[in-house]
Amino acid sequence: MDQKNKNSKKPKYSKFSQQELPAWKPILTPGWVITTFIIIGALFIPTGLLALAASDSVVEIIDRYDEACIPDAYTQKAESYIQNPNEKKTCTRTIRVPKKMVAPIFVYYQLENFYQNHRRFVKSKSDKQLRDPQAEGDTQNCFPIDYTTDNKPIVPCGLIAWSLFNDTYKLSSRGKAIDIDKKGIAWKSDMEAKFGSDVYPKNFQNGPLIGGAKLDDSIPLSKQEDLIVWMRTAALPKFRKLYGKINTDLDAHETITAEVENNYNTYRFGGRKKLVLSTTTWIGGKNDFLGIAYISVGGLCLFMAINFILLYVFRPRRLGDPSYLSWNRQPIV
């Protein structure tokens, strides 16, 4: 072998590297195209109708309370009211059940105009600290919620945990309390992998500026499900997070009394707060988008199929001979 061939960077020949492996190369004749469009339309439209029907069967109650829970004297200065520790924050709301709600009924809090996806907000946490009790000093991404004034590490540190939602809800009907189950609201993978079972809150919300809810120092982070739900940040400024579950049915036209503890300060940035009660179906909660998308795509495919049929019938074109295609030619010996 000469020196030129020895230094060559030309790869060793193979059918794979030269893209000569056997391949299916279909010829898209009018019959195949029309049939494909018809099949897609026939599958997508019924699927979309089923998804819409399932979404329509979801019973959902939405009650916005951020403005209604501000006393008349504080209408123009809501933020000073929410920051005043001497003012009573309890607010009573009346909710009417439009149709029977079959358990489990999910209780959500909905926030609007809250940008959890802000880059600085999303980065303001320490995954290592949340998992490992030996890493409580790992707070480099958590400034300014990293250390107390006497230089003790905050666990969990960062803006996400510090801003933990702290409104509370108590529901009752006919004078009897409705139990809201707070267990099982977080992802199991988060509880087992992201939050340590031997990591406990330390120095949390002990500073001069309180951002949100406090945490029980005797409960490990893996059991603090409200925190785990909150720290799975939302992608959009309007989002819902699971607060709890009701495991009993609610009858149609039943009146629910909601005692809301209005603590969370959304007034500074013009945010909105809503209490949501919702049932679910096989597609999840109430969402018409999936059904509309399926019907739209299916309808477009049927429309294209009809157009191709009309063109094929009234203005047909002679098809070429497939034997002239490069992959159908016989190799020259």
Automatic annotation (TrEMBL):
The chain crosses the membrane at residues 32-54, 292-314. The keyword Transmembrane helix applies. The keyword Transmembrane helix applies. Keywords: Membrane, Transmembrane, Transmembrane helix. It comes from the Eukaryota. It is found in: Membrane. GO terms for cellular component: endoplasmic reticulum; Golgi apparatus; plasma membrane. Belongs to the CDC50/LEM3 family. This is ALA-interacting subunit. It comes from Lactuca saligna.
